[in-house]
Amino acid sequence: MTNFEFDGEKYKKASKHQKEWGEKILSTLELKGSESVLDLGCGDGALTKELSEIVPAGRVLGIDASLGMIGEAKKLQMGNLAFSVQDINGMDYEREFDLIFSNATLHWVKDHGKLLENCRNALKPGGTIRFNFAGDGNCSNFFAVVKAAMRRAKFKGYFCIFEWPWYMPEIGEYKKLAEKSGFEEISVWEENADRYFADSGEMSRWIDQPSLVPFLRLIPDDSGRREFRDAVVKEMIERTKQADGTCFETFRRINVLARKK
Asked: Of 6, 46, 50, 260, which has the maximum CB count within 10 A?
């Protein structure tokens, strides 16, 4: 997993839809209140805090590779809630958790075979994983716009060795991967979460954090980064803005629920 540095404070303002998805999942969890929970890619910690309130007699650990995210998350740390800077694919826990939860993060992880192995090792017997992450068809407008910007003569030199930062598989591919993982009672399903951002400002904030981060880091000067960013935002607004002022983007999710033997 390539580590990107995010601005936790800006992400908090731009991640309304991600938080809504996560809260929907939290409402479906069947927990007794004493479980040990690991939140993979906890971001600014808002959902992780809600998890800690669901298990008041348990403990919750949120991990994220971004110093900026964990810096923001640690403002919430207290009682049964802790946060740590950690690469997801570098975790080496053994039988420590009853639940491993992740919302809107794991498309940043390329090797899901290794991810599932690490999760199985980290779970206690009978423990579960509950993931939601981006799948095939996600962000079709943004991807088309940013790829076009990358091909422009003034920018293409920066992206000669660029590695696409996300893994967003087709549902059939992920079902096969999950079935090989050693888990039981596996459920993998798709979800259409297409969204109308309230206005161009809300969409622009989402583009800035986190969507453009992997691209801007390769442009060495501030003026170049501003030019690339402004070109993408302008084209995105022109492409997606609706008659009522909202801006549309496709969001396609993969949900995973499975239990360790």
From this structure: 260
pLDDT of residue 5: 59
pTM (2 decimals)? 0.92
Using CA atoms, how far residue 26 sits from 60, 194, 199, in Å, is: 14, 20, 28
Strand partners, 59: 36
**Domain boundaries 8-259, corresponding CATH code:** 3.40.50.150
Q: Name the residue type at position 229.
A: R
CA 107, CA 110: separation in Å to the nearest integer? 7
Q: Report the pLDDT value the prediction gives residue 44, as an integer from 0 to 100.
A: 92
The total of other beta-carbon atoms located within 10 Å of residue 33's CB is: 10
CA angle in degrees (0–180, nearest 5) for 173-138-141? 140
Lowest model confidence (mean pLDDT) among 12-16, 41-45, 117-121, 204-208: 12-16
Do the beta carbons of residue 258 and residue 186 sit within 8 Å? yes
Reduced to 3 states, what is the DSSP secondary structure of residue 244?
coil
